[in-house]
Amino acid sequence: MDTATPLTSANSARPAVTELRLSAFKTHRGAVLPLGPLTLLAGASGSGKTSVLQAYEALARLGAGHRLPAAFPDPAACVPERAAADGQGRRGFRIGCTVDGPAGPVQLDLAVQAEPELRVVGERLTGGGRTLLATALRDPGRSSVQAAWYTAGLSPVTRAPLPDDRLGTALLPLRVAGKTQGQLRVLAAAEQVVLALRSVFPCDPQPRRMREPVAVGEGVLRRGCDNLAEVLHRTRSECAKRHVRLAAAARAGCAGEVADLAVEELGDGMVRALLARGGGLRATPVERLGEGELRYLALALVILTGPGVLAMDQPAELPDAYRSLTVLADGFDRCLDRRQARELVCLGAEMCERGHIRLVGTVADASYARGVAGVTVVDLVA
Q1: How confident is the model at residue 82, as a pLDDT?
Q2: CA-based, 20 to 30 A from 57: which of 75, 262, 317, 330?
Q3: Beta-carbon contacts of residue 96 (< 8 Å; ≥ 6 apart)
Q4: Helices in the chain by DSSP H: which ranges?
Q5: pLDDT at site 178
């Protein structure tokens, strides 16, 4: 594993997930994965790379307030292989993370029962060597867990039931009064975790769907990047500087001479993207590009844009100085040649260094990225 440069003081105010723990999840047992500003999970097929991103995305959904079924649509598949059920037929899984930020390192650990019914059976939030929140399933007949959070007032803890299908940490800002130093400490830790988790954009560009003209709408990039042309139509007029950077990236990663990225209006509100060629050559519609070039363009667009252009749950109440974005890119190097992959890694490292974006991607081979400043490579073994 290559270690990246730690977070700088300039962006320490932005909460960030710096460690993911898969204690018992799918093929992973006791896995502790460090996450830097740009992290590449490398390994052969079957090493569990995609499972790591699935666990991260599930935590993000829970942090945004979603219920368990939305975070784990197939919970039985999350149970570790060969995990035996207990005497009551119960099986489950355990995941967690560490979030760094103004409140210091805060650890969240979650135990989920997948069978016979999906529910939270235990959650622990810790920071500064103290347990700030702990929940436990006391009565299987009730749809709640017993929670206790740190108070440090006349009573050291406050106890109350919480729903067994939600992340308790995400509910604390609605339940804790914030009158004592202990309560303020709990609130600071919980809000730090929630802010880091919910600022996530899962991305897996689908070239087949990117070839068709699309209707002009609000210009928000979707997970599969199928509306690439629509977003380019917006960024050309609203984000001139970033569009210039995107055109430069296209020149570096696409075949032939590329003068600019253009958008053609086809009528009826439809648009398609073009590679504008120099030297009097005709423009090339993106539907003629190969899958590698299309994925390269889509990922470059994701890296260079921000929360206002990506379809994600972004906390609008936060000032820009505290906003962060984590891109989860499954198959980051899929269909790309080494030159394209390295160009994207270098572009991502530059943007991550500025502190407005973090990126976690899965790759089959990270040799082209080793030694690039700011890149953490985590090798997974099947």
Answers
A1: 84
A2: 317
A3: 20, 21, 23, 107, 108, 109, 110
A4: 49-63, 68-71, 168-175, 181-198, 207-210, 228-238, 240-253, 291-304, 338-353
A5: 83
